Amino acid sequence: MTHVATALLSLGGFALLFLAMARHQQDWLRRKLPDQQSRRLRQAGFALLSIAFLIAGLGLGWGYGSVAWFGWLSAGAVTIVTLNCNRERILTWVRP
Amino acid sequence: MKASLRQTMSTLHTWTGLLPGWLLFVIFLFGTVAFFQQEISQWMRPELTPAPVSAKAIETADAILRKDGAGADDWTLSLPGSRGGEGFSISWTPAGGDRSSQQERMLDATSGDLTSVRDTRGGFFLYRMHFDLHYMPVMWARLLVSLAALAMLVAILSGVVTHKKIFTDFFLLRFGKGQRSWLDAHNVTAVLALPFYLMITYTGLVTLLFTLMPWAISANFPSTDAYYEAAFPSGPKSEPSETNAVLRPIPELLQRARTLRPGFEPSYVSISHPGNAAAIVRIWPRTETLGGHQPMLYLNGATGEPLAGPRESGAATATKGVMIDLHAGRYANPALRWLYFLSGVGGTIMVGSGLVLWTVKRRAKLPDPARPHFGFRLVERLNIGVIAGASAGIAVYFLANRLLDPAIAKRADWEVNALFIAWGAIFVWSLGRPARRAWVETLAACALLYAAIPLVNAATTPRGLPASVMAGDAIFILFDLMMILTATGFAFAARKVATHQSKAKARSRTRQPKQDFQEVPA
User: What's in the keyword line of the UniProt record (chain A) (predicted)?
Assistant: First the structure.
């Protein structure tokens, strides 16, 4: 359970950090978000990653939990990179 | 003219990455695979069914040791852990005999019946290859591995400085853009698991601490033995006395250990001078927690009373222990173990893509791309021979485990030889082919070899994929699936290289043969 929560929060955190970047906003949303909004996305992203760390630490012990947290961070970021590589396919699927 | 810091670091990164690069690739590849060494051993010993050692099996072991091992200098019992891969084995050295006369028996963990298992080194070889290499003295191998790891640490740190857009390009991976794509792949795999690489490289150096820094011992101790005696004092020693005394039953001794220390899980038992009044029973605990080192337990064999163990080592040793635990990941549960494995795969790709990037970057600048200079050709050939060769070798190691005649002498050694024969064959084959063709063919060979493993497994054991699914045998199911996945990965890579070549050809047909690679600011 702790692993699932840490994984999802890491994935969500990186998704927000990803969307906080102008280049990716252009690619995915076809427009740039105002700076204010980007900043909020970035803050929310870092907040999710921090919560993931707390959950991993409390659920698995701080030593074990921090190793697992780093692992899920990598896994989350790799998922975002993979999704971004398949942008065309996903966008045609979402908006036919 | 003074170069900028970033340029200096870039040069440092290039050479500390390239020169030990092929060794680093091997270390990363085998180390990554070794995270699953127990599971691989389980697959390579299909005769075993993992089960906790039953009381009955221990009673049988006790009886065999008393009957066949009577008068022996020492007895040992090796109890398998829950991850499988090892059998319940007992051994004894007959009186006056040396190591070569040691007798060993394998028992079924549940029934206690004598069983036999094919002669293989299993996943343990892949683990040892990670730092001991093969066909060379261990100390030399470890020195090479330590130096490569040092270079790796330098390459990681200088790489971070070299990478100009570590945050802007964090998620960026663009395919089909030649050099840019290789740089992206190298950057993404490097950045996304950076904490893991720093941890694994640093703690890896810690495991080989005294290979790299023997002077810490020689400056403070008269000999290495003196250091080990001071750092890890040996426990009570026994000289056989004149009096004989019957050894307490082994099940009782193990029960005693569990009562003395709740939660104690024995992994290995050694009994010196069984049958003598001075018999000592040493019991090693199974510790699979992060930094959860537990001292050994010593019992008097004749009475079952506990004996005082040596003084426990201090904080420095404990710190080193935690670092080694972090490196080996034995404490990790399946979820975390997979994360270790994925990060390791990332590291293997990082090293591999870095090696390829070196050639891709320079190919554009070659005065005559058809006839590159010697250094370029050397790197290109080593890349193919090591990246595809080592990968194919591991596949052949698994295949040899299933296909070699169980009766041949030194079977376990021949499995290992098969790995290197295949590796050498791939290397030699690739030398005789144009570079692109060599890549396509060797990667395709890897794909075929890995794809053959589940088939050969199904043909030679009753534990093929359908049977494993029916039996719910997770290790065998996942092993077969991982082989199929690996085969798909290699097939994908081979296809990519093949189609890339046709594009380049198409381009050179329509345009001047001038190179159209974009020069990317380093």
Answer: Membrane, Transmembrane, Transmembrane helix
